[in-house]
Each structure stands twice: as structure tokens, then as C-alpha cells.
Amino acid sequence: MKPKRNRWFLRALALMLASMAALVTFSAAAEAGSQGDPLVTLSYLNETFLPKILAQVQGTASGSSGTNFAVVDLSKGKSLSLSVGGEVMLRMGTATCGATSSPGLIDETSAGSIDNGGVLVKNHLYMATIDGRSVKATGDGVKLLVRGSYSLS
Q: Per-domain residue ranges for the chain?
């Protein structure tokens, strides 16, 4: 009986040593930050990754015009004309679309469009894809968020 018991112990020891060797080989082959070694430290995030992302975001915001919305107040009967690519969102009051042809404004929120005289829906984002598109205030206290070039009349 003793010889069988020794063989079992030797087999278990050999299997354990082979497993450890494979584990050491695999972990040495994995490159830091790769799929084989995905561990990321907090210091890497704070000292390397976050500053790179912030620099990219700040560079984009300061380097391109028209990236921020401007708040525009319109009184009844006044209009805001948008340039091509200009966007507008009705926040307060009531307003209609002004256009000489279809489509008037593209409703980016509902993926539709409104034509001349169409009523803007509050909190929907509209885009002018053709020159000569405008938004006309039909009541007092109209407040718009506008991005891009525009003129008031």
C-alpha cells in the first residue's frame, strides 16, 4: 500500500508544480493594461488619464465656435433667424417656425420636421438645414436656447 500512496502524492505534487509554472508564465506574458492584465490603479486615473481627458475637452470647447448655447429672450412678434446648422430649443412661451419652403425646421428630438407656421414644442431641439429659417415669438416671455449663428429682427 505504501508505494501507491507515494505515487498519488508525487502525482499531486507534479500537477501542482505544473499549474504554478503555467500561472507564472501566463502572468508574465500579459502586458500591463492589456486584456490579460486589466487592472488600473487610482493613481493612473488621477495622474494620467483624467488630465488627458480634461485637456481634450477644454481644447475642444475653446477651439470651436458655436459649441455653447446662448439664452435669447424674444418679445411677441420678434423673430430669430438661424444660419444653416443653427439649433434652437424653446424653453418658455410659444413660438412658430418661419420658412419660405419645406422643410422649415428639423425636429431633432422627434426626428420629424415642422413647416412654416408650425408650432415649436417646448424642450425639443430644432435645426435649420436651409437658409432663411426663423422662429417667431407668438407670445410674451419667449425664452430660447440657441447654438450657432443667428440674427434678431
A: 2-63, 70-152
pLDDT in tens, the chain (153 residues): 455 556 777 777 777 777 777 666 655 555 555 666 667 777 777 787 778 877 776 654 443 445 688 899 999 999 999 999 999 999 999 999 999 988 999 999 998 999 999 999 999 999 999 988 999 999 999 999 999 889 998
Q: Which fold has domain 70-152?
A: Jelly Rolls (2.60.120)
Backbone angles phi, psi at 147, to 5 degrees: -130, 130
Q: State pTM to two decimals.
A: 0.57
